[in-house]
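Sample pair:
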Amino acid sequence: MPPEQHAVTLITRAGCHLCEEAEQLLRRLSGELGFGYREVDVDGSPVLRDEYSDRVPVILLDGKEHGYWRVEEARLRKALAR
């Protein structure tokens, strides 16, 4: 599946420096590889807060948890190429 057909979601939180780093990397990669992504504030939903609050940022790839705390660029590139 080409990268542009994948859905990437970044679960983030205001004031989180790791979230800011993840956002910058995902912006760069989305521009390079052509995939879209969206950001969701973990504190905007009790369900997300219960699930992910202690692990932000969390990266979801096609609705499934791909990783948290740091974006592993090589691993994400490989997953997007599948």
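The domain at 3-80 is CATH 3.40.30.10 (Glutaredoxin).
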